[in-house]
Amino acid sequence: MTEEWHLDNERIRSFVDTVDEAADTHEEIPDLLAALRDPFRDLLTDDDWLPEPYDGLVPDGYDDKGEMGRDIAQWLLYRRPEKLTMFTLVLPPGVETPVHDHLAWGLVGIYSGTQTEDFYRRADDEDNHIGHADLEHLRTEEVERGDFYELIPPNNDIHKVRTSSDVPSVSVHLLGADVGCIQRHQFDPDDEFVELFQSHYTNVRCERSLSPPDNHGHSHSHQH
């Protein structure tokens, strides 16, 4: 399966190798993520591997910004199509994402700046892609560099983030799906509404729009 290295240096290659080794050893997602906690935290606090533009905002004049938000950059770093992605999400000060889900297991953590995160869950029994959706607000967290959380849908799958620092926030995402190119869900908690959206990547176009995955639970299909 073809790998794409949009950021290619020794540090990111070493981390992806660590992910592969852990995936070969741990079939269940909770065990895999537990094995990656320390390596991921080390990556978040390493100053030397994430150069421009991957820690920056969208370029001036860039107009294909996807549906996450016009001022939000989503830089693809690494992709193993439909299996594994790494990307950064960069939000200007005060900017907030829509409430959205991920539909994939993974790790999400802060590389620079600070964020306020609000987590939700669906309070109804429906699994519809568009229409009514009743969300329950679970908690609000203030996160800073080195903080991260484990994503095992439905746990921690629905959230919104806002940059609370006076500089842009940069978060690093390791996810078990091509999250920028799949159709995911965007929610309006006040109007109790859900619809499909696609976040895209700032530096790479999606050749096709992928349907929401049927299985994003507690085991992985990992090929390398």
From TrEMBL:
Name of the protein this chain belongs to: Predicted metal-dependent enzyme of the double-stranded beta helix superfamily
Judging by the UniProt lineage, the source's domain of life is Archaea
The UniProt entry, under InterPro entries, shows: RmlC-like_jellyroll, RmlC_Cupin_sf
